[in-house]
Design a protein that fits this description.
By secondary structure, the chain is α+β, with helices and mostly antiparallel strands. It has two domains: 237 residues, BirA Bifunctional Protein, domain 2; 92 residues, Rossmann fold (3-Layer(aba) Sandwich), CATH 3.40.50. Helices cover 32% and strands 29% of the residues. The protein contains eleven helices and 18 strands. Helix 4 crosses helix 5. The chain is elongated, with a radius of gyration of 26 Å. The protein starts with a strand and ends in a 6-residue tail after the last helix. The model has no long low-confidence stretch (mean pLDDT 93).
């Protein structure tokens, strides 16, 4: 992990104080030196790369962290988990040669689609965010570098047969980017994955590698965040599924509901059996009637409710109830555990 606070001079070198200042908190004086809460993780990874001389044989170098960043969002745009001032990014930076850049970008985009599919998102929009040449003062770098970087991203998406919309003026100050916005269950777009081509920061920090020809060359850099903000992603997940998560995502996968205190020992055995198999189970041992326990589990949108009474305890079974399919009848405990484990391991998105 890279530090949460770094010397202000680092952010001057990166260009953030010139191009990103409005989204940064003010400098902090510590022992007569100015420090800055980090708005991005990239300079920290750059310093790791720069800690020793690299060879072309070392590349690509991929560095990643779940890094907390801090951005000064105006109070009027703060919005629950969706827009916050301190958040965690699943951030990665890839240092590579010019010959490797398109394959690295392609791998990042493939990774993003695989992650979204796992979480049950299959509706999304892709944008290619480019600079606005009419306002070159808002960006770092030469026009020919921007053209070359934009072409590399466009070529990658063309090769992958991904339709996209070109967004002029939406690039980062250091380079163009591919943005993937997922569409949630009620049709709203949310910015998640970003894959950014960066030729500026390697130049600003004087990054080098020794090439096959023995000379020193400047690497290129890819910024990659799959979920974007982890907090925002959790918010999107909650809203997309309206809290009724697939079993593999549900905080509690099975609620064990004994009909009376007489079968508590068996109910504990059922709960412990589930937990030993790595499943998230909870025992409702409150002194409440069974309909109240089932109602509360339904309100919490727990996928499975396991009712156990004297008959189930004697037979070694559980009476299975699904939150949306209703009563599924009695099943041997071992059979239910196996079926739930398979459902979880398959990451089925059935709710």
């Amino acid at each position: 992990y890279t530090p949460h606070i770094m010397r202000l001079d680092l952010w001057k070198t990166s260009g953030h104080t010139n191009f990103y200042k409005e989204s940064m908190f003010g400098a902090i004086e510590v022992e007569k030196a100015d420090y800055q809460l980090k708005p991005m993780n990239c300079p920290g990874h750059i310093l790791i790369y720069k800690s020793k001389l690299r060879s072309y044989r070392d590349l690509p170098i991929r560095l990643a962290e779940l890094g907390t960043v801090y951005r000064y969002e105006r109070s009027g745009v703060l919005h629950g988990l969706m827009r916050v001032r301190g958040f965690t990014q699943d951030d990665a930076h890839i240092f590579c040669t010019p010959a490797q850049i398109e394959s690295e970008v392609e791998a990042c985009v493939d990774f993003a689609f695989a992650v979204m599919k796992n979480f049950g998102f299959d509706n999304y929009e892709v944008e290619l965010s480019v600079w606005d040449a009419r306002h070159a003062e808002n960006y770092a770098g030469k026009p020919e570098d921007w053209d070359r970087a934009t072409a590399a991203l466009a070529n990658t998406m063309a090769r992958m047969k991904i339709p996209y919309k070109k967004m002029e003026g939406e690039a980062a100050f250091y380079g163009p980017k591919i943005d993937i916005k997922l569409i949630d269950a009620i049709g709203r777009p949310w910015q998640l994955t970003t894959v950014q081509f960066d030729f500026n920061l390697p130049a600003r920090f004087g990054l080098e590698y020794v090439g096959e020809d023995g000379a020193r060359h400047q690497p290129l850099m890819v910024h990659r965040a799959l979920l974007g903000s982890v907090e925002r992603f959790f918010g999107i997940l909650i809203e997309h599924y309206a809290g009724a998560f697939p079993a593999w995502l549900a905080p509690v996968q099975a609620e064990v509901c004994p009909v009376s205190e007489k079968v508590l020992d068996y109910a504990r055995h059922v709960t412990d059996t589930l937990k030993r198999r790595g499943l998230r189970a909870h025992l409702d041992d409150r002194n409440e009637k069974l309909p109240a326990k089932i109602r509360d589990a339904q309100i919490q949108k727990i996928p499975y409710m396991l009712v156990v009474g004297g008959k189930e305890a004697e037979a070694g079974t559980v009476s299975v109830r699904h939150r949306s399919k209703g009563d599924l009848g009695p099943k041997p405990l071992a059979e239910f555990v196996d079926s739930l484990q398979k459902e979880v391991e398959s990451r089925s998105i059935s709710v």
